[in-house]
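Fold this sequence, please.
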Amino acid sequence: MYAVSKIRKKFGEKEVLKGISFELKDSGVVGLLGPNGAGKTTLMRVLVGFLKANEGDISWDKAKIETKSTEYRKKIGYLPENNPIYPTSTVVEYLELIANLKGIDNPKTEIGKVIVDCGIKDVIGQKIETLSKGYRQRVGLAAAIMGGAKLLILDEPTVGLDPKQIIEIRELIKSLAKDRIVLFSTHILPEAKAICDRLLLIDKGKIVLDEAPSKIKNLEKKFVELTS
């Protein structure tokens, strides 16, 4: 169980996160849904250790964790909205670099595994700059899960994709969530309904709704009401 408790984050006098709390089970897709500016990206940056919260705790299996610790970072994978890949590297060169940075003991085996898991076998010899946006996202996901990440945090992973690519990436995310937690940020309600087992609706730095999409009556209306 992954638990976030009373997380607050300020930038100067502006409080962006106002006591965020939730728990995540060991697998499945949880949608972090909310309008632009609601605090989604700030929250994810706190969770991965890029930002330090002013208040609050994060724990895993009831043990408090330090988000900047090497042990914690080995357990998580992060794909930001702007996928930080090296365009002039081939796919396999990039994955070798990531394996080296993560200190993976058997990089060849691990790279082979993520290539299969993310469906990029046909493009491993290509330079990343030649790939479609959909394949670039697949490469980013492969890098994020490398090392057996148990928590995968994705920031708007389908932005800029064409309809076919969106469907393919959604299906890939669902498959990756079978044995890990996926926290999936989006501001698009239909997408959240299509992929998520549970929705965390964030607005103005607070969680205002936490429920399975199927259990929320008039979800579209409620979304508009809560975020308007």
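The mean pLDDT is 91. The first helix runs from residue 40 to 47.
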